[in-house]
């Protein structure tokens, strides 16, 4: 229920956007009891210009989460994946369906950090 279908990033180095949308989709499901599939392409086009991710040349989930704190995420059906980062941002921060209030990084190997993150 809380995990979307398997997706394919193709030859674009956009793993950061797929991992971020996967986490956001899971959070949305756990919060709203409804599965939504969010747009990786939105992050490629929009997060690259607003924050410091680099589209198909890599990025960080943290920056994608920062984007999702300031913008509502668009459904993949409305902003499909193109395996390319040369497009201009077509998302509207007011027309998306889900944003987050924050996120927590878990230090590798830290059970305490993991417990604290899960308790939130």
Automatic annotation (TrEMBL):
GO terms for biological process: proteolysis. InterPro entries: Papain-like_cys_pep_sf, Pept_cys_AS, Peptidase_C1A, Peptidase_C1A_C, Peptidase_C1A_papain-like. One of its GO terms (molecular function) is cysteine-type peptidase activity. Keywords: Zymogen. Residues 1-120 form the Peptidase C1A papain C-terminal domain. Belongs to the peptidase C1 family. This is Peptidase C1A papain C-terminal domain-containing protein. It comes from Strombidium inclinatum.
């Amino acid at each position: 229920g809380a995990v979307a279908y398997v997706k394919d990033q193709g030859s674009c180095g956009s793993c950061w956007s797929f991992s971020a949308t996967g986490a956001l989709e899971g959070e949305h499901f756990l919060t709203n009891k409804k599965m939504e599939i969010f747009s990786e392409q939105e992050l490629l086009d929009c997060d690259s210009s607003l924050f410091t991710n680099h589209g198909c040349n890599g990025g960080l989930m943290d920056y994608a989460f920062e984007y999702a704190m300031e913008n509502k995420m668009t459904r993949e059906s409305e902003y499909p994946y193109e395996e390319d980062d040369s497009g201009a941002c077509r998302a509207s921060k007011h027309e998306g369906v889900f944003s987050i209030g924050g996120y927590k990084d878990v230090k590798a190997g830290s059970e305490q950090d993991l417990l604290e993150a899960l308790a939130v």
